[in-house]
Specification:
This protein is α/β, with parallel strands linked by helices. The protein is about 35% helix and about 15% strand. Strands 3-2-1-4-5-7-6 form a 7-stranded mixed sheet, sandwiched between helices. The chain is globular. The two termini are about 35 Å apart. The structure holds S-adenosylmethionine. The site of S-adenosylmethionine has 22 residues, from loops.
Length: about 280
């Protein structure tokens, strides 16, 4: 197939920085991918590092974060308008706080995605953190030259997302249609065994042990349905116990980002769990 001069040839890469990005264990994950599978499911999408490495033909991509999912849908469907909007942003402190103070639910989809990507590129550490009212509250990052509008990559990502199902759903609903020979990759907020973890309960993005248990039940259901399953998490006795009987692979990593949504501070060792 020939490509027209306007078709981007660049390999797409994640267009947002996301806590828990998988760059460090990506190599290990890729080694495990089965040769043949039907639909690829990624229900804790975040930056989508594994999706962008695999670029599967059929995919269901989901996350519970509304801002994130709106951005994926706009990148897929309206990349040119988004690029025009992103070009107007400025990396200036006052301007940043002005954009941050906008209520995203009152913006149209393109402006909302543009605000989200702008804040992600210019905020401190590229973290997405919200207060108890769900308002984004990360301070200005003071980067010298953040790449707010990476036009070439956004166009490549848009192509890669064409025809993919993108859902703002809880993980359980996102995988409800997965069946025999589909591949599901779960990258949930990691379990943290530290005492302070229990205080993060009131944060919107929290993922308490009861959620890890619900996830492990879904994992077992999907195993019975004949899916290929891969899951990453921190190496704690609790997680090892939840996935007893499955293949458990230990991986060593260095963690840089630690947020309440994806707490990694006590997890120099991670686990990759599969059912094949
Ligand atoms: C560890 S991050 C995923 C990182 C991603 N693999 C990457 O490469 O950037 C976990 C994601 O799970 C999402 N999440 C948390 N609870 C969820 C739930 N109940 N259902 C679906 N997504 C959820 C968060 O919004 C966050 O984006």
């Amino acid at each position: 197939m020939g490509s027209s001069p306007t078709t981007p040839t660049l390999k797409p890469k994640p267009f947002v920085k996301w806590a828990g990005g998988k760059t460090q264990i990506l190599g290990r994950l890729l080694e495990l991918i089965p040769q043949d599978f039907k639909t690829y499911y990624e229900p804790f999408l975040g930056g989508g590092a594994l999706f962008f490495s695999l670029l599967p033909e059929r995919a269901v991509l989901a996350d519970r974060n509304e801002e994130l999912i709106n951005a994926y849908i706009v990148v897929r469907d309206r990349p040119r308008e988004l690029i025009e909007s992103l070009k107007k942003h400025r990396n200036e402190r006052e301007y940043y706080y002005q954009i941050r103070s906008l209520d995203p639910s009152k913006l149209g989809p393109v402006e909302r995605a543009s605000r989200f990507i702008y804040l992600n590129k210019t905020c401190y550490n590229g973290l997405w953190r919200v207060n108890s009212k769900g308002e984004f509250n990360v301070p200005f990052g003071r980067y010298r030259r953040p790449n707010i509008c990476n036009e070439e990559n956004l166009l490549a990502v848009s192509q890669a997302l064409k025809g993919k199902e993108i859902l703002c759903e809880d993980f359980e609903r996102a995988v409800a249609s997965a069946g025999r020979e589909d591949l599901v990759y779960f990258d949930p907020p990691y379990h943290s065994s530290s005492k302070t973890a229990s205080f993060t309960k009131y944060v919107r993005e929290d993922f308490p042990p009861s959620e890890q248990e619900r996830l492990a039940r879904i994992f077992r259901n999907l195993d019975r349905r004949g899916c290929y399953l891969i899951l990453s998490n921190s190496d704690t006795p609790f997680i090892r116990d939840l996935y007893k009987g499955f293949r458990i692979i230990e991986v060593r990593t260095n963690r840089f980002i630690n947020s309440k949504a994806c707490s990694r501070k006590d997890s120099a060792r991670e686990l990759i769990i599969t059912n094949f």
